[in-house]
Specification:
about 110 residues; mainly alpha; 5 helices; 2 strands; EF_Hand_1_Ca_BS; EF_hand_dom
């Protein structure tokens, strides 16, 4: 693959993740901290269904719901909370999505 094409694809993917992050915070960051707490992620996962039209948010909800149901959500959260703050910042959020994607999940 041409390096220029790869760079463009990487930049587009980064923008997509940033948009997902921004949308998530706008809708589900209940304490306004600008981060994601485990409790906020659990509340999102416990929604019966994601009712919006964003396919990335739908995929995130499907993953979170499944991880919450099988008991792996807290472990996934803690595994990427590298600073131990109990809150995910954008870089940690990206890491969580990437790790689950590497395991074959559709996040």
């Amino acid at each position: 693959m041409d390096a220029e094409i790869k760079a463009k694809e990487d930049a587009e993917f980064e923008r997509t993740l940033q948009n997902l992050w921004t949308a998530w915070l706008k809708e589900y960051d209940t304490d306004g901290s600008g981060t994601i707490s485990l409790e906020e992620l659990k509340k999102f996962a416990e929604l019966p269904a994601y009712t919006g039209s964003d396919s990335y948010m739908q995929t995130l909800h499907d993953w979170a719901k499944g991880a919450n149901e099988d008991g792996s959500l807290e472990e996934a959260f803690k595994g990427v909370d590298t600073d131990g703050s109990g809150e995910l910042e954008f870089e940690e959020f990206k890491k969580m999505l990437a790790e689950d994607n590497e395991e074959g999940e559709e996040v």
